[in-house]
Specification:
Blueprint: E1 13-17, E2 20-23, E3 32-34, E4 39-43, H1 51-57, E5 62-64, E6 81-82, E7 92-93, E8 101-106, E9 112-117, E10 125-135, E11 138-149
Parallel strand pairs: 2-11
Antiparallel strand pairs: 1-4, 3-9, 5-10, 6-7, 6-10, 8-9, 10-11
């Protein structure tokens, strides 16, 4: 009646974190997670089941961690949090907990995180990692959680 319209803006693409679990000191494989395996996508149409369709249609160009360059450890970003050695439900910056445990970010081939543990025995803990997804309309952010299971093959007490 007064020349106005009700308008709703929909974000065309939503990012959902995936659950990732690795095992500390695995003897089977190098503990590497592809950046694309940290998140899943869903759009307002819910049209596709193949993730590559989202990459091409929405022009997704990369998944990165702010403040961390190629070949650097992710604990350089103070927003990377862990519950390692903390009371349940308490998270602190990863850099404040254990300098021997970290992930290294590599940008090649779509990006990956490689877990490193420089001779520290650990119990199961979680790392919360903020990620940035660049796409045709700018970027989206999300926080993903990686669970690191206790050190594999610990010596047992007699």
């Amino acid at each position: 009646t007064n020349n106005t319209f009700n308008v709703r803006f929909l974000r065309p693409l939503n990012v959902e974190p995936k659950n990732n679990v690795i095992e500390d000191a695995s003897v089977n494989v190098l503990q590497t997670i592809k950046m694309q395996d940290l998140v899943s996508f869903k759009d307002w149409r819910d049209a596709w089941t193949n993730p590559s369709q989202y990459y091409s249609y929405y022009g997704i160009t990369g998944i990165t961690i702010d403040g961390v360059n190629d070949g650097e450890v992710i604990s350089q970003n103070s927003n990377v949090l862990t519950d390692q050695n903390q009371t349940a439900g308490t998270y602190v910056p990863l850099s404040k907990v254990n300098g021997a445990v970290d992930f290294t970010y590599y940008s090649a081939n779509g990006g990956s995180l490689t877990y490193k543990n420089l001779s520290s025995t650990v119990e199961t803990f979680k790392v919360i990692i903020p990620v940035k997804i660049s796409y045709i309309w700018g970027y989206l952010t999300s926080k993903v959680t990686v669970t690191i299971n206790r050190t594999h093959g610990n010596a047992k007490k007699n």
